[in-house]
Amino acid sequence: MSQPIVIAVDGTAASGKGTLAKKLAKHFGFPHLDSGALYRLTALAVLEAGGNPANAADAVKAAKTIDFTRAADPAIRTDAVGAAASKVAAVAGVRAALFDFQRDFVERPPGGATGAVVDGRDIGTVICPDATAKLFVDAAPAVRAHRRWLELKGMGIERDERALEAELVARDAQDRARAVSPLKQAADAALLDTSNLGIDAAFAAALALVEPKVRGQLEAKPRG
Ligand code: CDP
């Protein structure tokens, strides 16, 4: 059997990587894994249990018991859970507990698909260093804050846009500074700055970067 195709989409908070990853998945007919949901579910579990997200024991215990069927729960999408997710994500034991789930997803994509799309912070660097195609998505902080403001407004949550921007910047700084699996562009990832691109233009740009790599793997002689 040839290796599954893996499209790794990493990037900063609210950069649009999730939207792009979903659209790429739909285009190629692959399942999509939002790895951030794993950290958000872990954070929510810690908060619901009355624990401290920065406490390694609390965070690891939560990571081992998360219920992935709750990934669509809007409760994990709040900025408070996002901030707590960034805290649990810095705990090495949490990342170790979530590693196998992510590797299984790309090695045996659900539904017998021939590939998978995963978005996150360390997909191209740590989870799938051999990914077929790697994108690193970024945008100016003010643009990202506006997108997140609109997203939260759509969920009925009113936030101050400047305060959101400060939170996103602080979370990125925390994600970049951590010792384990920090947020960073893989050496072989293509940078996609979506500051001046709407969804359709960003998707067209992403596809132009990813499609040749996918074609290259499909045309290569199957290994083994
Ligand atoms: O949607 P947004 O970009 O705000 O965040 P997310 O992708 O849902 O991730 C929430 C937090 O989880 C991030 O700030 C990271 O600290 C952490 N995370 C991570 O460490 N590694 C991943 N592969 C995905 C998320």
Structure overview:
- There is one protein chain.
- The chain has 224 residues and is α/β, with parallel strands linked by helices.
- 52% of the residues lie in helices and 12% in strands.
- It contains nine helices and five strands; from the N terminus they run βαβααααβαβααβα.
- The chain has helices at 17-28, 35-48, 56-63, 79-88, 92-107, 123-127, 141-154, 161-177, 199-219; strands spanning 5-11, 32-34, 115-120, 133-138, 190-193.
- A five-stranded parallel β-sheet has the order 2-3-1-4-5, with helices on both faces.
- α2 (35-48) packs across α3 (56-63) and α4 packs parallel to α8.
- The mean pLDDT is 96.
- Cytidine-5'-diphosphate is lined by residues 13-14, 18, 35-36, 39-40, 82, 85-86, 89, 120-123, 171, 175.
- The site of cytidine-5'-diphosphate has 17 residues, from α2, α4 and α8.
Query: Number of DSSP helices?
Result: 9
Got a strand count?
5
Q: Report the bound ligands by name, code or SMILES.
A: cytidine-5'-diphosphate
Shape type = globular
For the terminal residues, how far apart are their CA atoms?
Answer: 7 Å
Q: Proportion of β residues?
A: 5-15%
Mean pLDDT: 96
Concise synopsis of the structure shown:
The chain has 224 residues and is an alpha/beta fold.
